[in-house]
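Exercise: predict the fold of this chain.
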Amino acid sequence: MAAGLVHNKSLTECCLSNNNISGEGVKALAVALADNRSIRALNLGQNNIGDEGLKALASSLTHNQGLRVLNISDNSIGDEGLEALANSLVSNRKLRGLHLCNNNIGDTGLFALTVSLAQNRALRAISLSGNTAITEIGLTAMARALQSRKCKLEDLCLDRINIGDGGEVLARALSINKSLVSLSLTCGGGLVSFSDDGLRALTAGLSHNCTLRELDLSENTAITAIGLSHLRQYLWAPSCALE
């Protein structure tokens, strides 16, 4: 199949999820992908490609100018693999959606990704849900990236990661950011929830934001009526852009 992709000019979407491709298999696919111009969406979820597989894929993305959406969720990818991908995103100007859910990514990998966002203006959507090794340190790096005018992210999903009470970290970023439209911060899975103080800080930051339309705080069970009162005040304010 990999050999056929080199010359294929009609296939636009390719779903290979849950096929046990592994790192070695994705290396062959990466060689073909480097020269392919037709595929716009590639789903490699649940294939255990690991860091070595992602390194090969990252190398191909340096040359590929067709792919718009890449799903590599559930692939045992760690910081080393994400660092390689982040380096390739510096030169890739076409990829718009990146799904990295349920991997082994931590603060080091996320930091590398945020550094690349300072030079990449193509990415519009990133999903990092379920990477529980990410802490407030990684969230701080992402918040810093969101404050940059060079960052064009519109959709950011940080569900079920170990950011704790990250409201204050995100508040300043959201007060400055002019691109983000959707932000998901659901909790669950025994992780540390947003607190009332975190939600108060978050809504204070959002009071200066005019672009965010969707905010998901589901399953943040530490939020009480006190925190909800801060949210309600924000929702009633003329400055609220949420729909």
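Check your answer against the key: The chain has nine helices and eight strands.
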